[in-house]
């Protein structure tokens, strides 16, 4: 039995009870828990991390992966983000 994966999941925004279809698409949602954003860029920029954090907030998820395939070793292109925690310390944000 494998993981449940949804590709290009449409992510609407709900504002003051109004559903707005604005074209956000999550690259992959794994087991309805982990958002995966896929890139192939020279380097991950703050805008890429902001995109992932926005998707986490809008879809009420806590864990996300940002994968950049334009690297020599894939390990160097993986960034994990946990909403509400600083990654380098593992402590809750205030």
Radius of gyration equals 14 Å
Architecture per CATH nomenclature, i.e. the level-2 architecture: Alpha-Beta Complex
Low-confidence stretches: 88-94
Instruction: Let me know the average pLDDT.
Output: 88
Got a strand count?
A: 5
Bulk shape = globular
Q: How would you classify the helix and strand content by structural class?
A: mainly beta
CATH topology, which one?
Answer: Lambda Exonuclease, Chain A
Individual helix count: 1
Helix content estimate: 10-25%
- Distance between the amino and carboxyl termini: 39 Å
Number of spatially distinct domains: 1
Please trace the helix and strand order, writing H or E for each element: EEEHEE
Q: Biggest sheet, open or closed, and with what strands and sense? A: 5 strands, mixed
**Spatial sequence of strands, sheet with the most strands:** 1-2-3-4-5
Kindly estimate the percentage of residues that lie in beta strands according to DSSP: 35-45%
Please report the first level of CATH classification, the CATH class: Alpha Beta
SSE blueprint:
Elements: E1 5-15, E2 18-30, E3 34-39, H1 46-58, E4 63-68, E5 78-82
Parallel strand pairs: 3-4
Antiparallel strand pairs: 1-2, 2-3, 4-5
């Amino acid at each position: 039995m494998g993981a449940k994966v949804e590709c290009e999941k449409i992510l609407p925004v709900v504002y003051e009870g109004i559903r707005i279809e604005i074209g956000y698409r999550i690259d992959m949602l794994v087991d309805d828990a982990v958002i995966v954003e896929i890139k192939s860029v020279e380097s991950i920029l703050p805008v890429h991390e902001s995109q992932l954090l926005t998707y986490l907030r809008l879809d009420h998820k806590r864990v996300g992966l940002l994968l950049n395939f334009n690297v020599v070793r894939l390990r160097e292109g993986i960034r994990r983000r946990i909403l509400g925690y600083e990654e380098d310390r593992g402590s809750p944000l205030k």
